[in-house]
Design brief:
The structure holds 2 protein chains of 2 kinds.
Chain A: H1 9-19, H2 31-38, H3 42-58, H4 60-76, H5 79-96, H6 98-106, H7 108-120, E1 122-123, H8 124-139, E2 144-148, E3 152-153, E4 157-161, E5 163-164, H9 170-189, H10 200-206, H11 211-233, H12 235-243, H13 255-262, H14 268-278, H15 295-323, E6 336-339, E7 349-352, E8 355-356, H16 361-374, H17 388-391, H18 398-402, E9 412-418, E10 423-435, H19 443-450, H20 452-466, E11 469-475, E12 480-481, H21 483-494, E13 504-509, E14 514-521, H22 529-548, E15 551-559, E16 565-571, H23 579-586, H24 596-608, E17 614-621, H25 633-649, E18 652-659, H26 666-671, E19 676-679, H27 685-696
Parallel strand pairs in A: 2-4, 10-16, 14-15, 14-17, 17-18, 18-19
Antiparallel strand pairs in A: 1-5, 3-4, 6-7, 7-8, 9-10, 11-13, 12-13, 15-16
Helix pairs in contact in A: 1-2, 2-4, 3-4, 4-5, 4-6, 5-6, 8-9, 9-12, 10-11, 11-12, 11-14, 15-16, 20-22, 20-27, 22-27, 24-25
Chain B: H1 8-11, H2 25-34, E1 39-42, H3 49-60, E2 64-68, H4 75-79, E3 80-85, E4 88-93, H5 95-102, E5 105-109, H6 116-119, H7 123-126, E6 131-134, E7 139-142, E8 148-153, H8 166-169, E9 173-176, H9 182-193, H10 197-212, H11 224-235, H12 240-252, H13 256-269
Parallel strand pairs in B: 1-8, 1-9, 2-5, 5-8
Antiparallel strand pairs in B: 3-4, 6-7
Helix pairs in contact in B: 9-10, 9-11, 10-11, 10-13, 11-12, 12-13
Classes of the chains: A alpha/beta, B alpha/beta.
The complex binds adenosine-5'-triphosphate and magnesium ion.
Chain lengths: ~700, ~270
């Protein structure tokens, strides 16, 4: 604010003549600009002068044009926007020259409108993380958000626009995001798409002459029902949803149906009935937050989930059959059935030839999920997968591997746990140590640049950890008197004993004395994101560990079959974190399979040879143990678990980080309930891993 | 009164502490007590372990001595030390020795926080010897039959440096605690705060939502304790959303995104 008087037109004219001299002529005077600028307040005038002077230094011609538009631009736009307008024009001038720049100055209206839109828009990128947590809190499981052109829920993902600017303020648009996501979630929560009939919505709508209209009407009706559900369950959210938009009430002819849909016991069936009854009525305007219904996408997502579950169950049954001792009946005559009639759909029991069968927890969870979707487990789901099921996964034959170039000399032999026989298979696995081929790419530098903010934050936290002071008592020399010791010494002295010599406190840095081994999954399934995330994580970890001074080593693991287990050296305990190690981290590549047990045993052997008070084995993998020759399912899980128990017996703390989008029921069993962390978004691994490590060791 | 000494009567609990049993823990504790077996309470923070101990002390009519363990807690802090009084030195019992002498119940809260060398002083007390040797005075305290030892431990912490040693844990009968089932938790929140059943039920649902976030950026969901705090704030006139923000969201985490998400959850419910 300033109290100075505005510049008058003549004053402006004088000033402009001087500034814009090179651009003026007899025919082209500064008078029109001066007249317009004189009508502005002093604040805006000063702002205009400031910028005209700057632009004039770049190009007087451009400044002349700017001076002529300035009054209009400054009246139309707030200061920030006006500044952006000028800078944009100067940018265009730098890149493309004078005439495009003059044109850029010219379209004040478009520019101002775009700025306004930008200033009130909310971006999904920005709200996404909070929204995902919000939805997870609501629903108890993770719902993925996806940016796209349309707004809908396909039951697997919630699709939202990348940015929203429908409402006048940014704050309101942020709220619109939240309300929209919650409303779409309500479709899943309150049964808009029952899992047992993926095609239902498609079929029902096509039963009407105008399927698109029918789908729209159904959506309007469901929205009424879901809003009522939300009002009951989440009144706060419902209030927000109401305040977003004024709407005329539903037409009077709808009233009985609205009452029915808003009743506490209304289901999607009521919406379908209302659809039949109200078919032909004009569609009410859609709510801002309701998005669209994509019947086809829903059908596809539901179907593929059912299909996945069915295949998973059939494979599991096949594995179960394989575990049973051979019987008189040929395998194809053996029959699985399910006993769920009285126990209800929550707890189906699996029977084989009429005998109840103990199933692993993941299979049980799968059966429960299917029973919940379908109301029962259909008979065709209970047919074990055919022999082709596994072979189809890969073109390789086991024999090819045996033909390979393995030699057992120079290799390590390890036992493996066979849970079916409850004993070890002796010297079952052949393991070799190899070097990771160093790669010559600027990966490490790029990672450090990409995570510059994080890296410096980590540095601070880890410095704080390292700097943790511990006071040592009863020292001969020290920073302070140890009063406890002194008082006791005094008592000793009085009773005729000698004064002890440790009477001081000394502050010393807490010696951490930790050795940690990182075991990194290099199986084929890590290809892409996971491999990148693993490598980035290792870079950040190394930086952090260098600060802490903890001793650490990094090995990758992979292989095909028990005869070819491979450990890839990235950094041994004795190696320094230098360019070679960095190049090896860069060179970590996805290879073959995941035989976890033998890798754990090998690395524990190395850890056992290290002198440290606390020994830690951190594995980083993307899920289930899995190898080509039957190391899968329960066998692999049990062997991994056994190897981890062995580690524990050796005094090694094992901690497993799993990058996996699905909650897996077997994880607590395999790793031990508190000995693992699951990361469901690989992109978060680099952010989380150092936190996990800090948490583990403080 | 000598410094550091608390009169035993002060530790006797005369009024029944309100406690809602989650299962048969009262029975188990009583029979462990009668058999002189020490007890380990496992469970997340704020789920009623301390309250349970108060309740049991009242039931068994024994004084309760509670020690909150921390990483600087030494054996002398537990057992006792010499102090200078009027130019002379005098021995003063620590809380553990005191509890043994008076036949009370000694509750060591969060035992894993204590230094490892501190934990071992309870070993001779926690097996069938039931003695507490006091090295500095040469005394060996024999625990009377009424004495009981209880420790608590939160197995949810993942730090490898804070694991309870087998030789310690295998001396105890373990009672597992968790957040109470919804109807019980609602009753607790209501009783403790007087907020009324309806709002209490909402708070319990809110807690369930935060517990859904455990492992996805939250170390722990909202405990019963936090719900009671939020309810008390509401009873004294704070708006539900503000109460949840202060008593729950901010108490659970400093991560701004997580705080925002939790605030959105409470704003949706109320
Ligand atoms: N079963 C219960 N009966 C009555 N009140 C309970 C119960 N469970 C929890 N509470 C309430 O929760 C509060 C916290 O419980 P308490 O202090 O006993 O937790 P804690 O398990 O000891 O936690 P910490 O491990 O952090 O010490 C109590 O003050 C009480 O209000
Ligand atoms: Mg407590």
């Amino acid at each position: 604010m300033t109290d100075l008087k505005p510049w008058t037109a003549p004053e402006w004219e004088d000033w402009l003549d001087e500034e814009l001299d090179a651009a003026l002529s007899l025919r082209r005077t500064s008078r029109p600009a001066a007249m317009a600028l004189a009508t502005l307040g002093r604040d805006r005038q000063d702002f205009a002068r400031h910028w005209i002077a700057i632009v004039a230094k770049t190009n007087p011609e451009l400044a002349f044009h700017f001076a002529n538009r300035a009054a209009e631009g400054l009246r139309r736009m707030a200061r920030d926007d006006a500044e952006a307008w000028i800078i944009q024009a100067m940018d265009v001038y730098d890149k493309m020259g004078l005439y495009p720049a003059i044109a850029a100055l010219g379209d004040i209206e478009t520019f101002a409108a775009a700025r306004e839109q930008r200033s009130r828009a909310a971006a999904l990128e920005q709200v996404g993380p909070v929204l995902e947590l919000f939805l997870q809190g609501l629903s108890g499981r993770r719902l993925k958000l996806e940016a796209g052109d349309r707004t809908f829920n396909d039951t697997a993902r919630i699709h939202l626009p990348a940015s929203l600017a429908l409402l006048p303020t940014r704050e309101a648009n942020l709220r619109l995001y939240k309300v929209t996501a919650a409303h779409l979630w309500a479709q899943t929560r309150f049964g808009t798409f029952p899992g047992n009939d993926p095609e239902r919505l498609v079929n029902r709508c096509h039963a009407f002459p105008d399927a698109t209209y029918a789908c729209g009407l159904f959506h309007a009706l469901e929205t009424i029902r879901l809003d009522a559900c939300l009002a009951r369950e989440l009144p706060g959210l419902h209030r927000e949803l109401r305040t977003l938009q004024d709407r005329p009430p539903a037409p009077a002819s709808w009233a009985p149906w609205v009452a029915r849909l808003e009743a506490a016991d209304a289901t999607v069936d009521d919406s379908y009935e209302a659809l039949a009854a109200l078919y032909g009525e004009p569609l009410p305007a859609p709510h801002l937050y309701q998005g669209t219904l994509d019947a086809a996408a829903v059908a596809a997502a539901l179907k593929s989930r059912l299909e996945e579950e069915r295949t998973a169950l059939q494979n599991a049954l096949k594995a179960l059959l394989g575990d049973k001792p051979p019987q008189t009946a040929a395998p194809e005559e053996r029959r699985f059935t399910v006993h769920d009639k009285d126990a209800g759909r929550n707890d189906p029991t699996l029977l084989l030839d009429g005998q109840p069968l103990a199933v692993p927890p993941d299979v049980h969870a799968l059966m429960r999920s299917i029973a919940q979707d379908l109301g029962e487990i259909p008979d065709e789901y209970l047919v074990p997968a055919g022999d082709g099921a596994y072979a189809a996964e890969s073109g390789k034959k086991p024999e090819d591997v045996w033909k390979g170039t393995y030699h057992e000399e120079g290799a390590f032999l390890y036992n493996e746990w066979d849970y079916k026989r409850q004993h070890y298979r002796k010297d079952w696995c052949v393991l070799r140590e190899l070097d990771v081929h160093p790669a010559d790419e600027p990966f490490v530098a790029e990672t450090l640049r990409k995570y510059a903010g994080l890296a410096s934050r980590l540095r601070k936290t880890f410095e704080a950890l390292r700097g943790e002071n511990a006071t040592q008592r009863r020292q001969k020399h020290g920073d302070d008197v140890d009063f406890d010791a002194l008082v006791e010494g005094f008592a000793d002295l009085r009773s005729g004993r000698e004064l002890p010599d440790g009477l001081f406190l000394r502050n010393s840095r807490f010696a951490r004395n930790i050795a940690v081994m990182f075991m990194v999954d290099m199986s084929g399934s890590t290809k892409g994101w996971i491999n990148d995330a693993e490598r980035e994580s290792l870079v950040l970890l190394c930086e952090a560990l260098e600060i802490l001074g903890d001793r650490y080593a990094i090995y990758g693991f992979s292989g095909i079959t028990r005869k070819r287990c491979e450990m890839y050296r990235v950094k041994r305990f004795e190696d320094r974190y230098d360019d070679t190690v960095r190049a090896r981290i860069t060179g970590i590549k996805p290879r073959d399979y995941t035989r976890m047990g033998v890798a754990i045993r090998h690395l524990c052997g190395i850890l056992n040879g290290v002198e440290a008070r606390t020994k830690l084995l951190v594995t980083l993998s993307d899920g289930k143990p899995d190898d080509y020759d039957g190391y899968r399912g329960e066998y692999g899980i049990e062997d991994t678990r056994q190897a981890l128990l062995e580690a524990k017996r050796d005094g090694i703390h094992a901690f497993c980080i799993t990058i996996d989008t699905d909650a897996r029921d077997y994880l607590p069993h395999m790793y031990g309930a508190v000995n693992y962390a699951q990361i469901d978004d690989v992109r978060k691994l680099p952010l989380k891993i150092s936190d996990i490590y800090r948490h583990l060791t403080s | 009164m000598k410094p550091g000494v608390v009169r035993t009567e002060a530790l006797l609990i005369t009024k029944e502490p309100y406690y809602e049993p989650q299962g048969d823990e009262i029975l188990l504790f009583e029979s462990a007590y009668r058999n002189r077996i020490p007890v380990l309470l496992k469970g997340p923070t704020g789920c009623g372990k301390t309250r349970f101990m108060e309740h049991m002390a009242w039931r068994l009519r024994r004084p309760l001595v509670t020690v909150s363990c921390h990483d600087d807690l030494t054996a002398s802090d537990l057992v006792g030390r010499y102090l200078i009084t009027a130019g002379d030195t005098a021995w003063v019992d620590g809380p553990l020795a005191h509890a043994v002498r008076v036949g009370g119940i000694c509750y060591l809260d969060e035992i894993v926080e204590a230094r490892k060398d501190t934990t071992v002083v309870i070993h001779p007390l926690a097996d069938d010897r039931r003695v507490l040797p006091i090295e500095k005075t040469g005394e060996v305290l024999r625990a009377p039959p009424e004495f009981a030892l209880a420790i608590s431990y939160n197995p949810g912490y993942q730090s490898v440096l804070k694991d309870l040693k087998q030789s310690t844990r295998q001396r105890f009968v373990a009672l597992e605690f968790d957040y109470p089932p919804a109807d019980l938790e609602q009753r607790i929140v209501d009783r403790e705060s007087g907020i009324g059943a309806e709002t209490a039920a909402k708070l319990v649902r809110f807690a369930a939502m935060t517990r859904n976030l455990k492992g996805s950026g939250l170390e722990e969901g909202a405990s019963t304790r936090l719900l009671v705090h939020a309810a008390k704030l509401m009873v004294s006139g704070i708006s539900p959303v503000a109460a949840c923000r202060g008593a729950v969201a901010q108490a659970l985490t400093d991560d701004p995104e997580m705080v925002a998400a939790i605030n959105e959850l409470s704003a949706s419910l109320f």
